[in-house]
């Protein structure tokens, strides 16, 4: 049977309180009864000893003889205390017994045999002069005040237990509501988030660490979902825009050719083919980054000399460097690391291509490869145009271009750095950028050595 959390908390709390109060009450009554029984037994033994001493004194006062009147007086007082006293001589002959008194009181003498009995001897100078027997029932020693005390104690314990139980119910309801209120708010909030409403945030209003942690995680989840939603919307818009440009160019050219406005010649067909190639390249890049980010494109890792891999990429860009007369400062050491060489080749290619693209003629590029603790760190630094501060946080976003017109003129699609980040993250590493407009840019790639 499913219950609300506050109902479950109240039931659990009440059950726990009942158990604790019940155990404490039982233990208290048990201890009190045990100690009270010992007290009553001690008082009972003291009473028996007092009667024996009184009989002894009577014997001595009467010069070593037993006077029935004196013994009877003591015996009657014993009856008033619930004791049946029988006095016998050393030959076991009865000196005094209360038979006639018991009959006069309508006491059933047959019940005497079923009573508890305690025998003793009266001694004078260590010499036994008489035997005494006390008969009594189980309730002996419990006076009216003793019984009243026990009953009052039981009533008090019952009253305290009921009071504690009622207080516990109030506390349980308060605690349950205090705990369940933020949880109910979280449920309502997550339902709103599930429906696409990311506008609100949950307040932290409890002193419970775990609940506050849950609130923080839920708020962060909402923020991330909001960012992802905005990214998806922008990505859809960017993809549509990137696809629309070449398609519009192709459509316009074809319509002009069909209408006879433009002649169908080799130059125009080559231009159309270039647009198709650009469109195909864009689609391939989109598929590439999607497969990497969703781990569909499996990495094939092998132990690779990263310095040699960088040198191979540099060889491919040698003509580009010479064309712009860019000075290259290459500082590296031999580092073997488990990577997918094809994917990391693409990372280095994209970063170096960007550095060359945005570095002016006679500029400088510095490439550094070194080991830092458990990581291998690759930096590619240029003294090119740099990136505006407002654009730096977005350089790894899909289709983001700080200067769209300039990037498209140079063949950019705004997806190269997104591919770089996806590949590096897939390797368990990280990539960051530090740039200042008009000064230059530094890209830093960190890859774990124990990968």
TrEMBL record:
GO cellular component: plasma membrane
Primary localisation category: membrane
Domain Histidine kinase: 238-451
Domain of life, source organism: Bacteria
InterPro entries: BphY/WalK/GraS-like, HAMP_dom, HATPase_C_sf, HATPase_dom, His_kinase_dom, HisK_dim/P_dom, HisK_dim/P_sf, Sig_transdc_His_kin-like_C
Coiled coil: none
Its EC number(s): 2.7.13.3
Keyword Transmembrane: yes
Localization (cell): Membrane
SMART domains linked to this entry: HATPase_c, HisKA
GO molecular function: phosphoprotein phosphatase activity; phosphorelay sensor kinase activity
Keyword set, alphabetical order: Kinase, Membrane, Phosphoprotein, Transferase, Transmembrane, Transmembrane helix, Two-component regulatory system
Enzyme class: transferase
HAMP domain: residues covered: 177-230
Reactions catalysed, as given in the entry: ATP + protein L-histidine = ADP + protein N-phospho-L-histidine
Transmembrane segments: 9-32, 155-176
GO biological process, one term: cellular response to phosphate starvation
Official protein name in the record: histidine kinase
